[in-house]
Design brief:
CATH class: Alpha Beta
Largest sheet: 9 strands, mixed
Number of strands: 9
Strand content: 5-15%
Distance between the termini: 39 Å
Helix content: 25-40%
Number of domains: 1
Number of helices: 9
């Protein structure tokens, strides 16, 4: 009798684990699954589609000649960037994208250098793409796969960088949305940010666009006070997500995304709370 009860308990636990793993989850390919490919590149986004990513996550900066480019930071990242001569750059912040033309930026290689945190990443010469070029390439490739891509685009803005490393938030949002609208993908775009200013502008000037507030600290109540409205999505880190937050967001009609996470154990734990959308540098099946 005791043995039967033990077996029943084990089967119940194992069955619950399997049910979590098999839920219909949506994985946001963080920077195009940068654990596998050169981050924020056209090749990465295409590969993410091959890996069945539900949403392509990317970041935007602006050049001195007004081009929206796909880059996590408003400067070149010394961890991944080689100069035009093929040598690693030392101080990325000395290479502010907002102070360079696109023609100058395109000479740098952001794909060949091995990233210390991502040993599985493929390394090959890559350039920082214009947002419009990335959209064109991804949309064309998606058609060959028979899929319709979705995009989660982060406004990499900070009040301390206004006019120095980025346009002011009004211009930033206006120019970004022009790119998005010109490519007719607005209905498949999420605008996400840690900067509530850009989300406020999107909400006021482009009310049909889905918005997402990112958070790495603070309570839900504290972070919602940063906005005059409830965003479509709230994206806190895993350590900020508990059952109370899940229930609160459900009552308010706010969708939850677990912020970038590469721990299968943590993702499964959050999944058990009822969260089904996650951002990661890897597909779920390839989490280290």
């Amino acid at each position: 009798m005791i043995i039967k009860k033990f077996i029943l308990i084990i089967c119940t636990i194992f069955g619950s684990f399997i049910s979590y793993a098999q839920q219909d989850i949506v994985i946001y390919a963080h920077r195009g699954f940068r654990g596998l490919m050169p981050e924020n590149t056209i090749a990465a986004m295409k590969h993410a589609l091959d890996k069945k990513a539900g949403v392509l996550e990317l970041d935007i900066a602006f050049t001195s000649d007004g081009h929206a480019v796909v880059s996590h930071d408003p400067w070149l990242d010394s961890l991944i960037t080689l100069d035009p001569a093929g040598k690693p750059i030392r101080n990325g912040k000395e290479h502010a994208i907002y102070k360079m033309t696109y023609q100058e930026i395109a000479k740098y290689d952001v794909g060949s250098q091995q990233h210390k945190d991502f040993p599985k990443k493929r390394n090959f010469k890559s350039e920082i793409p214009k947002l419009t070029d990335l959209i064109d390439s991804v949309e064309a490739y998606a058609k060959t796969l028979g899929v319709i891509p979705r995009y989660s685009i982060e406004t990499k803005t900070n009040p301390k960088r206004d006019g120095k490393a980025q346009p002011n938030p009004v211009v930033f949002v206006k120019d970004l949305m022009k790119n998005i609208n010109d490519k007719n993908i607005a209905d498949r775009v999420i605008i996400q940010s840690f900067d509530p200013r850009t989300l406020e502008i999107v909400h006021q000037d482009f009310p049909k666009i889905i918005t997402m507030l990112n958070a790495t600290k603070g309570t839900f109540e504290e972070n919602m006070k940063l906005l005059t409205f409830y965003p479509t999505y709230y994206a806190p880190n895993a350590n900020l997500i508990d059952k109370n937050l899940v229930d609160t967001c459900a009552k308010l009609g706010i969708k939850l995304l677990c912020g970038n996470n590469n721990s299968k154990k943590e993702i499964d734990s959050v999944m058990a709370l009822g969260v089904t959308e996650f951002c990661s540098d890897y597909p779920y099946e390839e989490l280290p």
